[in-house]
């Protein structure tokens, strides 16, 4: 049985990863460490924390004693670090906490894992570790900076690599807004306090791999979407506002491009990298699901309007008249400072080495996501109102 220490799993992607792993593996132990910031919500993992295979620890990844205590009590095989301050807008307002959590927190986890996994030294003085252990840092494509947008409208992508074509081509509608993509060789060039803190964390992880020969992997993924996404991020915010007939704020001219990845596809990638990734390697996760923000907003409006018309039972979640759900809701607001123009990942490495591919087409994924939000309005209300804080007290402070 493998034991995973998963940090930040009360947040969006970590929670989806834990759900995916518990479904996929019967024989598994997961210790969740999460400090429950505004972005962490126990309601997101309420079934999982009642599962015998899961232990939830509330605490900070920077707390050395606490992390050591987890390692003393559990035979941790894999540490998967999702915990982070993750919202670019918040990093522009208050950069310091991003540096503290994302950089120092990562270094603390690495250091404790190093001490607990180390067996001794080789003749060269390098550390040697227990077999089969690994630290996986969940990073972001934003560390690579910004790509140019070469086409006003998306064009069909012609893949040159035969191997990737076999893995990816038949499964998704491949399109792009530019000629260049982020590969694992693209130099790090972060622009925002958030991406700089994540890039710094990646460099610390690589430093531990070089200097202490730590068994590590880094995954860098594109923008995720799917269930349990905190309602201040683009897609859940747009859904929430559409349902109440509120204006939909879109930065600048809305033409910035992101490469959208369905969160379960990301969870699958992390599982593959933890179990089969070559030690010391970086894997980019994402691919060929590029879209402009404005088109995401329009598609979300169209999809909600269609569902409401075709399945009127859903209209009970509307706090506005159905006739108000149209493009008039869109309102362009002052652009984000230093707004990166385009992110796009080339997933050749993970596709050819590990057989991963972005399985979920955007049109399918966005409808699944919208339906999830329509069916889980209680979750949205709870997260938005802070009721989950009460839930925590009820669960853990009696
Ligand atoms: N969301 C995306 O589209 C995206 C894309 C690329 C990479 N990532 C990376 O994936 C990871 C997870 O992202 P997410 O969107 O799920 O984030 P999130 O903000 O939804 O969740 C972060 C979680 O970390 C916890 N946390 C924050 N600070 C902590 C601390 N000091 N100690 C312990 N726990 C702490 C929070 O309580 C929360 O549960 C992050 O590292 C992020 O940089 C996210």
TrEMBL record:
Keywords: Lyase, NAD. CDD domains: dTDP_GD_SDR_e (cd05246). One of its GO terms (biological process) is nucleotide-sugar metabolic process. It comes from the Bacteria. It catalyses: dTDP-alpha-D-glucose = dTDP-4-dehydro-6-deoxy-alpha-D-glucose + H2O. Its EC number is 4.2.1.46. It is an enzyme of class 4 (lyase). One of its GO terms (molecular function) is dTDP-glucose 4,6-dehydratase activity. Residues 5-149, 180-369 form the NAD(P)-binding domain. Its cofactor is NAD(+). Belongs to the NAD(P)-dependent epimerase/dehydratase family. dTDP-glucose dehydratase subfamily. This is dTDP-glucose 4,6-dehydratase. It comes from Orenia metallireducens.
